[in-house]
Each structure stands twice: as structure tokens, then as C-alpha cells.
Amino acid sequence: MVIGRNNWLFAGRLRAGKRAAAVMSLVHLARLNGHEPYAYLKVVLERLPTQPASRIQELLPHRCQLPRPTS
Fold this sequence. Notes:
51% helix, mainly alpha, globular
């Protein structure tokens, strides 16, 4: 993870590398909190446009409640 983060600093611009590192950190945190990364990002990106700024912390991996998968 750390090697990748350093490599992404050369993603065209410094800001692009920092953004890529932030996204990868978020994906890794989702895994550490027991979420499947794709499902977590899908839920976050669906909720983000309507989420009030004062409640944005609810979308962090350790607080986010994902719907239970149907089997």
C-alpha cells in the first residue's frame, strides 16, 4: 500500500497523486472494517450528493451501515 501511494505521486500532478492515495486509503479502511470495497464505494457515492455536510462523517468506513446482502 505504501509503495503504491508513493508511486501515485507521479500521477500527472501532485494533487492527482494525493487524491489517488486518499481513495486507496479509503478502500483499505473499508476492508479493515469488514466491508466489501466495491459495495462500500457504491453506497457512499450514491449517498454523497444528498448527504448534508454536517453528517458527512457517517459515510466513513467505521461508521457506515451497508445494506445486508441478499442470499
